[in-house]
């Protein structure tokens, strides 16, 4: 990695072998599983950086993405499972601040798994994106 021509390769994984393969061949990385606050990105990112060092790659040449589990409990209690043990939630400003936190950690693409998946939740997320974009360099959504 990174690629020479062709579509970019994004790998989602967090085990030692997958991190090593990501460091060798991928253009972008997504830690497997759902994240919450930006602090939940620190440990997986440190493991990826170590894998990059192990294979001789500058970790800053690898794009970073994150899948964030987002819930608004006032619109329905989100289900908690081993698949999604926790959610990011809060006010519009708090969600925008989390986006900013991910940006500061080098994440260039955020994806959101919204619970519940309703027009109201998507409107709230859109408001948070607008607040974020007024205060920071935009991430890709």
Give the tally of β-strands. 4
Distance between the first and last residues' Cα: 24 Å
- Return the average pLDDT rounded to an integer: 92
Cα Rg:
16 Å
The main sheet comes to:
4 strands, parallel
Strand-and-helix sequence, N→C? EHEHEHEH
**Strand order in space, largest sheet:** 1-2-3-4
Give the count of helical stretches.
4
Assess the beta-strand content as a share of residues: 15-25%
Coarse shape:
globular
Task: State the helicity in percent bands.
Answer: 25-40%
Which stretches of 5+ consecutive residues score pLDDT under 50?
none
Folded structure, characterized:
This protein has helices at residues 16-25, 42-55, 92-104, 119-135; strands at residues 10-12, 28-30, 63-71, 107-115. The chain is α/β, with parallel strands linked by helices and 141 residues long. Helix 1 (16-25) crosses helix 2 and helix 3 (92-104) crosses helix 4 (119-135). The longest helix is centred in the last third of the chain and has 17 residues, at 119-135. The relative contact order is 0.16.
């Amino acid at each position: 990695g990174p690629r020479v021509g062709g579509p970019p390769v994004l790998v989602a994984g967090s085990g030692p072998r997958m991190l090593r393969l990501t460091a060798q061949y991928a253009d972008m990385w997504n830690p497997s599983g759902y994240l919450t606050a930006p602090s939940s990105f620190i440990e997986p990112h440190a493991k990826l950086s170590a894998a990059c060092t192990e294979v001789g790659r500058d970790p800053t040449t690898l794009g970073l993405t994150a899948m964030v589990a987002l819930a608004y409990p006032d619109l329905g209690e989100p289900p908690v499972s081993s698949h999604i043990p926790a959610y990011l939630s809060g006010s519009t400003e708090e969600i925008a601040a989390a986006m900013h936190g991910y940006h500061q950690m080098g994440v260039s693409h955020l994806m959101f798994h919204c619970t519940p998946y309703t027009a109201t939740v998507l409107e709230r997320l859109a408001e948070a994106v607008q607040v974020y974009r007024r205060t920071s360099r935009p991430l890709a959504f």
